[in-house]
Design goal:
Layout (H helix, E strand, L loop, with lengths): L2 H14 L1 H37 L6 E5 L4 E4 L4 E4 L8 H8 L4 E17 L2 E10 L11 E4 L9 E4 L12 H6 L12 E4 L16 E9 L8 E5 H19 L4 H9 L4 E6 L5 H10 L3 E4 H11 L1 H32 L1 H9 L4 H41 L9 H28 L2 H6 L2
Parallel strand pairs: 5-10, 7-9
Antiparallel strand pairs: 1-11, 1-12, 2-3, 4-5, 4-8, 4-11, 6-9, 7-10, 8-9
Length: 440
């Protein structure tokens, strides 16, 4: 019996008993839908966690800090001071650049106590300095304008949530008044470290540094309050600020002076090519003695928290598929009892035992395949409904069905059909031809 005849006969046998076949397929549909939807909710939760963390920063960026600092000692249950190892200097930065999977590396300098000036308005600006050519690679998303480039010097990128105010107003009036809408991309801007700028107490010796906004970040996320500029220019501003502080107060911060002498960076950002390689690179950096962390640590912790929930959801779906498998087995056993004489005739006219076995396995596979295809269509519709409700309620319980899950569900349901039909097929194969023909 060739394959075409086998498939044709299997389809005709199933269609002879439409109601029974339909009910059996329905069981597979429910099982497939349950598994796909339950698994998709677990996947969707992980996708939701990843999106939430991406609003805080790139999941592929590792933050590296100097060695030393405090760490938790599990034996004593107390914090302990780590010994300082290699310096986080330019040599370390070059070492990071040579690492496998690393796409971009940039030292970071954060400078506070600076103010961004736009006409008569000013804004408190926590300014971060980076190597400008690495800005896009490090995952900073510019909504308007462009990111910094290697050619930029006096350029800045302003966070969308940076708010300006009139320095002549009292503190109460500043916070209660509606912040002015400043188009930073088309406004003349400058930076100062004079907190009295714009008032009668302004220090005339401090000259604002002119800058140009070339881009604007999103108004959401952890970078929305930042101003980013080339690190070399920020170092010049810091130098001017320290010279002014020294003239006015006679001294500067001991810790910052020590860091300047050692030429050690306060932080370095390392961009990895893929999330799959973040932990590998991060561990390499830790083995060098530096402190390193990334948002992927938070993501893994979130996934671990929901691991049990995902297992429970998958188990619920699996139970439905077990019930469907029992239904397929029952259908095929009933088919053997009803077609015993037909099986005997097939054997007498020359059908091989292998052909009889293949016939029943093909019928069982068709039931599983049809249930799987209808099941993934239904699960797609259920997934849309779950996401619609989740979006309205602002819930993290959303559904995400990747292509591999669709294909896997059809393959799984077909496989379940074949397994469920195996014992009935063997039973049909072992029937005695003479006894089968005599059966009424």
């Amino acid at each position: 019996m060739n394959t075409r005849d086998l498939i044709d006969m299997a389809v005709r046998n199933l269609l002879k008993r439409k109601v029974r076949t339909l009910l059996t397929v329905l069981g597979v549909v429910i099982g497939t839908t349950s598994i796909v939807v339950m698994v998709s909710i677990g996947i969707g939760m992980n996708v939701g966690f990843a999106k939430q963390l991406e609003s805080w920063g790139s999941l592929q960026v590792i933050e590296v800090y100097p060695s030393g600092g405090m760490s938790y000692n599990e034996e004593t249950g107390r914090m302990k001071q780590e010994k300082k190892k290699d310096a986080l200097d330019q040599k370390a930065v070059e070492t990071f650049r040579q690492m496998e999977y690393v796409e971009a590396v940039s030292p970071v300098k954060n400078l506070y106590g600076l103010y961004l000036i736009a006409g008569k308005y000013m804004a408190d600006a926590g300014i971060m300095g980076i190597e400008p050519a690495t800005m896009e690679a490090l995952g900073y998303k510019v909504e308007e304008g462009r990111a910094l480039s290697a050619e930029d010097s006096k350029a800045i990128v302003v966070g969308g949530a940076v708010e300006f105010y009139d320095p002549k107003l009292s503190w109460e009036a500043r916070w209660s008044a509606e912040p002015p809408q400043i188009d930073v991309l088309h406004e003349k801007l400058s930076i100062t470290f004079d907190w009295n700028y714009g008032t009668r107490n302004a220090d005339k010796s401090i000259k604002p540094i002119k800058v140009e906004a070339v881009g604007k970040l999103s108004s959401e996320g952890s970078d929305s309050w930042r101003v980013i500029m080339p690190m070399k220019e920020l170092e010049k501003i810091e130098k001017s600020q320290k010279e002014w502080e020294k003239k006015k107060y006679g001294s500067s911060s001991a810790s910052s002076t020590e860091r300047n002498k050692s030429k050690e960076f306060e932080q370095v950002l390392v961009k990895v090519d893929s999330m799959d390689n973040v932990q590998k690179v991060q561990q390499q950096i830790k083995d060098m003695g530096f402190r390193a962390s990334s948002l992927s640590d938070e993501l893994e912790a979130m996934k671990e928290t929901t691991k049990m929930l995902r297992l429970v959801l998958g188990a619920i779906g699996a139970i439905s598929m077990v019930v469907a498998a029992i239904s397929i087995t029952n259908t095929m056993v009933m088919a053997i009892y009803e077609r015993t004489r037909e099986i005997g005739i097939m054997k007498v006219i020359g059908a091989s035992l292998k052909d009889i076995k293949r016939l029943f396995l093909t019928e069982a596979a068709f039931i599983g395949f049809a249930g799987g295809v209808i099941g993934i269509i239904l699960s797609f519709l259920v997934s849309l409904g779950v996401n619609l409700v989740a979006s309205r309620q602002g819930s993290m319980m959303q559904s995400s069905i990747p292509i591999w899950l669709y294909l896997g569900a059809v393959a799984f349901s077909t496989g379940i059909g074949i397994l469920a039909g195996y014992l009935p097929a063997v039973r049909a194969m072992r029937l005695s031809a003479l006894s089968a023909i005599k059966t009424e």
